[in-house]
Specification:
CATH class: Alpha Beta
Largest sheet: 3 strands, parallel
CATH superfamily: HUPs
CATH topology: Rossmann fold
Number of domains: 1
Number of helices: 6
Helix content: 25-40%
Structural class: alpha/beta
Shape: globular
Distance between the termini: 44 Å
Order of helices and strands: EHEHEHEHEHH
């Protein structure tokens, strides 16, 4: 089976993420959506909440939701997966992703990174921008999956 890991914070899951997941499933038999846990950051949603939201939004049995701490390449080796799937939104993403892919290749030459351009409808969306807009009462209805929207509004005390 061809498997890939799609890592990210997914705080919150956006329609851009869903686009990458759906398109990734056209290339891979199995996709592990892996939530990166960074103890130095304070996320809006807990890991458990993000796992639940992603599972609800991605009911396809070929999608597994998991989380990890530490190096992504170590997690990939633990899971016996040789491909990392990364989404690119804009040119600004490329520099960071290029550096990370090369560092990962240095640390684990047996693990490859595959880049996928985010769909044109979602190239401007990031979890951070969605959080900021939602916190200020902005309409993010078309930016996140339907199951995420009420939870996002709840976090900010919005109706």
């Amino acid at each position: 089976m061809r498997a890939a890991i799609y890592p990210g914070s997914f705080d919150p899951l956006t329609n851009g993420h869903l686009s990458i997941i759906a398109r990734g499933l056209k290339l891979f038999d199995r996709l592990i959506v892996a939530i990166a846990v960074n103890p130095k950051k304070t996320p809006l949603f807990t890991v458990e909440e993000r796992v639940e939201l992603i599972k609800q939004a991605c009911p396809d049995p070929r999608v597994e939701v998991d989380h990890f701490e530490g190096l992504l390449v170590n997690y990939a080796r633990q899971r016996s997966v040789k491909v990392l799937l990364r989404g690119l939104r804009a040119v600004s993403d490329f520099d960071y992703e290029f550096q990370m892919a090369n560092m990962n290749r240095t640390l684990a030459p047996d693990v490859e990174t595959v880049f996928m351009m985010t769909g044109e409808d979602y190239f401007y969306i990031s979890s951070q921008l969605v959080r900021e807009a939602a916190a200020l009462g902005g309409n993010v209805d078309n930016l996140v999956p339907k199951n995420v929207l009420p939870r996002l509004k709840e976090k900010f005390g919005l109706k």
